[in-house]
Every structure is written in C-alpha cells, then in structure tokens.
Amino acid sequence: YRKWAELGKLELTDGDVIDHAQIKADFLEWINGENLKETGFDPWSATQFSLALAEEGVPLVEVPQTVRNFSESMKEVESLVYGGRFHHSNHPVMNWMMSNVTVKPDKNDNIFPNKSTPEAKIDGPAALFTAMSRMLVNGGEPEASLSDHLESYGVRSL
Question: Boundaries of each Terminase large subunit-like endonuclease domain copy (predicted)?
Fold first, then answer.
C-alpha cells in the first residue's frame, strides 16, 4: 500500500480504523458540481456513513452485495471487457483488486465475486459491479465505452 501511496495512487489514513469523516469529505469534494443522479451503496455496516451522506443531500440507493444485484452486472462487465468496450485508467490498485476477484457459477449460472484471502481486497470491483447494477436497473445501455457511460452518471475512475 505504501508504494501506491508514494505514487499518489492511494491515500492512506492514520490509525487502524476507517476514517469515515475523511472519506465523506473526499467524496463530497469529488462529486462537487457533478449532476449526480444516484449513489449506489452496500448497506452492510454503513448506517452512520450513509446517513451522513444523506444529510449532505447525496442521492443514495441501497444495493446490497448479493447474487441478485451482482450476477448480471458482472456478466455485463465481462462482456464489455471481452468486446473491447471496457476502458479504464490502468490504475494499479484497481488492477490488483480485479486480479483478486474469483468467480464460481452456481447451479443456475449466477456469479458473484469472491476473494481467496482476507488480504485480497476486491472493494474496487464491488463498487464497479454496484455501479453497473444501477445502470442496468435504470435501463441504461453502455455508450461507446463503459467509462463514458459511468461518467455520465457521475462515476469517475479511481
């Protein structure tokens, strides 16, 4: 993590706990001036943080990390990747997290992201699958590139 921080690709916070105040401040700065239609979030252990964002007027939509919400969105991302229509900034942290995603289809061919160890973080891909899930629910069709479409919904690259 320290190497990515030194390269300006990751911001470290002090201590061993998540600094929700810093994340909130960074997020509000990041979306300032954007025409944000909605922000999908996983409600698991996010009550206080989501309430804090709602108090700031951030439009929030709960998107639990379930097979129902992620299977179709993961398949859509996969299709875009193999079709050469998925473009991202080649961010080293996202690349590492994507390499940590493992998938095992269930008997109905549904898929869900897993990781092999607790150290194998997949938060970035989970955020991507959440965003894609909301795009699909809202009837969106991918534009020339997924990046262009997500940016039209206020989602920017890492």
Answer: 1-136
Listed residue (52, 47, 77) closest to 62, CA to CA: 47
Cα 130 to chain centroid distance, Å, stands at 6
Beta strands 60-62 and 39-41, pairing class: parallel
What does pTM read for this prediction?
0.83
pLDDT in tens, the chain (158 residues): 999 999 999 988 888 888 899 999 999 999 998 888 899 999 999 999 999 999 999 999 999 999 999 999 999 999 999 999 888 889 999 999 999 999 989 999 999 999 999 999 999 999 999 999 999 998 876 555 666 666 666 666 54
Listed residue (158, 156, 157, 145) closest to 35, CA to CA: 156
Tell me which residue of 50, 55, 75 sits closest to 129, measured CA to CA: 75
Cα 65 to Cα 34: distance, rounded to the nearest angstrom: 26
Residue type at position 125: P
Q: Where are the domains of the chain?
A: 19-62, 65-158
Residue type, 141: E
